[in-house]
Design a protein that fits this description.
The complex is a heterodimer of chains A (114) and B (114).
Chain A lengths: L3 E4 L2 E4 L5 E7 L6 E7 L6 E7 L5 E2 L8 E7 L2 E6 L8 E9 L3 E4 L3 E5 L1
Parallel strand pairs in A: 2-11
Antiparallel strand pairs in A: 1-3, 3-8, 4-5, 4-9, 5-6, 7-8, 9-10, 9-11
Chain B lengths: L8 E5 L4 E6 L7 E8 L6 E6 L4 E2 L4 E4 L5 E6 L8 E9 L15 E6 L1
Parallel strand pairs in B: 1-9
Antiparallel strand pairs in B: 2-7, 3-4, 3-8, 5-6, 6-7, 8-9
Classes of the chains: A mainly beta (114), B mainly beta (114).
């Protein structure tokens, strides 16, 4: 199947700093990518839909100024958590659509804010 | 909100078939049924999807009822490595609609026992 790679796999940062997470589709082009967040023992929650060349669409309750999404190319989307706080500690996962029908997920990024 | 309901957990003996049910009684005509699984601390893995016909691939079989209101994922010979949370999701493939997004419910924790 298609491969979606996330980097880094895990990151620890200090409170107040910003962290960037990359999501790459390695062997296909993805006009749409999705970003999810998952807290322990909970399901994946969609944060935003990332569209190449246009602004991301955020889900209700997700702060667009805090979670900056850039989808500058057909193979790369980035999520930047700005001014991170301990409550932002979570497992962040991206997915990309390999048209016409399948969505593939990255391996996830474990963010810990201390 | 997820449009599917699944049992919270199931157990299966190694080597036996695992049958995971899913109810999606409000599924629309243009929505597919997708199955993903998530092993602890990893990104979801695509398993299979279908519209109305039964589907089979190297991982599993998908049985969709004639009225499309429910489906069953079948792992023919479960192994210990199949222990994971299994998610049943309905999704339309026309981008732009709200049902294009993959919305995860709580899924079923399948535990395969030796």
């Amino acid at each position: 199947g298609a491969v979606v790679s996330q980097h880094p796999s895990w990151v620890i940062c200090k409170s107040g700093t910003s962290v960037k997470i990359e999501c790459r589709s390695l062997d296909f082009q993805a006009t749409t990518m999705f970003w999810y967040r998952q807290f322990p023992k909970q399901s994946l929650m969609l944060m935003a839909t990332s569209n190449e060349g246009s602004k991301a669409t955020y889900e209700q309750g997700v702060e667009k100024d805090k979670f900056l999404i850039n989808h500058a190319s057909l193979t790369l989307s980035t999520l930047t958590v700005t001014s991170a706080h301990p409550e932002d500690s979570s497992f962040y996962i991206c997915s990309a659509d390999s048209m016409p029908t399948e969505a593939f997920f990255g391996q996830g990024t474990r963010l810990t804010v201390v | 909100d997820a449009k599917t309901t699944q049992p919270t957990s199931m157990d299966c003996a190694e080597g036996r078939a695992a049958n995971l049910p899913c109810n999606h009684s409000t599924i629309s005509g243009n929505e597919y049924v997708y199955w993903y699984r998530q092993i602890h601390s990893q990104g979801p893995q695509y398993i299979i999807h279908g519209l109305k016909n039964n589907e089979t691939n190297e991982m599993a079989s998908l049985i969709i009822t004639e009225d499309r209101k429910s489906s069953t994922l079948i792992l023919p010979h479960a192994t210990l490595r199949d222990t994971a949370v299994y998610y049943c999701i309905v999704r339309a493939l026309n981008s732009g609609g709200s049902n294009y997004k993959l919305t995860f419910g709580k899924g079923t924790l399948l535990t395969v026992n030796p």
